[in-house]
Specification:
The protein has two domains: about 120 residues, Leucine Dehydrogenase, chain A, domain 1 (Rossmann fold, 3-Layer(aba) Sandwich), CATH 3.40.50; about 120 residues, NAD(P)-binding Rossmann-like Domain (Rossmann fold), CATH 3.40.50. Helix content is about 35%, strand content about 25%. It has eight helices and twelve strands. Strands 2-1-3-5-6-4 form a six-stranded mixed sheet. It has a six-stranded parallel sheet with strand order 9-8-7-10-11-12, sandwiched between helices. Helix 4 packs across helix 5 and helix 4 packs antiparallel against helix 8. The protein is globular. The chain starts with a strand and ends with a helix.
Length: about 250
């Protein structure tokens, strides 16, 4: 049996295992997809020495720290500054970023053609993939963080004018994810209007408190499920290419 998996710190919320194991069963692929909770990324070498994986995904909080354990990183993933998919090829670990495919698909669906400025809530690995896509699409953005050292602006500095001028708002933090479903990013929702497009990378629940508040103000919204499904399929394509290369 072939083995694939996901590494992260807390994976009880994970969609990936159900997605891939259902796919393997439906397509009669002799493989499984396992979850590996690591207290530290430094546990990765031991895991790889004991588990014969053929590929794995990476989630919070290791999308950046994983990079020092890789032999190669694709140009796109290096430009993003984060890796969420790792392939094994000719004895090497190669890092990819398939999050960008999911973000592209979601923003296309959200119809952001008239959005010239964006606010990205968060500065982690997912935020970096969002930043990459917005740069390629020529959309100006500010990263919002609790720390002035990490972002362009803090939550306390978000004025009504800034929210009004940035008609695309993207939550790239885990705030609002199950089980903390009553939480939402700390912004002034009353300054969001029908001209806004609001995208939440959180997928569980499908309708987060962040999206609910934005919808109440008339904004068009998008949850994280399409992104998640698209990046998962893109990861599978990466692993299939690696398999074909070794034949």
């Amino acid at each position: 049996m072939r083995h694939f998996g996901l590494i992260g710190r807390t994976l009880g919320h994970s969609f990936s295992a159900k997605f891939f194991n259902s796919k393997f069963a439906a397509e009669q692929i002799d493989a499984d997809y396992l979850l590996f909770e690591l207290e530290s990324i430094d546990e990765l070498p031991k895991l790889l020495a004991t588990m014969p994986l053929e590929g794995f995904n990476v989630t919070i909080p290791y999308k950046q720290s994983i990079m020092r354990y890789l032999d190669e990183i694709t140009p796109e993933a290096r430009e993003v500054g984060a890796v969420n998919c790792v392939e094994f090829s000719d004895g090497k670990l190669i890092g990819h970023n398939t999050d960008v495919r999911g973000i592209e698909a979601s923003l296309h669906w959200l119809d952001i053609e008239n959005c010239k400025r964006a606010l990205i809530l968060g500065t982690g690995g997912a935020s970096k993939a969002v930043q990459h896509i917005l740069r390629t699409q020529g959309i100006e953005y500010k990263c919002v963080s609790r720390s002035s050292e990490r972002g362009d602006i803090t939550y306390d500095e978000l004025t009504p004018e800034i929210i009004a001028q940035h008609t695309l708002i993207i939550n790239a933090t885990p705030v609002g994810m199950h089980p903390d479903v009553a939480q939402a990013p700390d912004i002034s929702y009353e300054h969001i209007g029908p001209e806004h497009r609001v995208f939440d990378l959180v997928y569980n629940p499908a309708n987060t408190e962040f999206l609910r508040r934005a919808k109440e103000r008339g904004a068009m919204t998008m949850g994280g499920m399409l992104m998640l499904q698209t990046q998962a399929i893109a990861s599978w394509h990466v692993w299939r290419k690696a398999e074909e290369h070794t034949k």
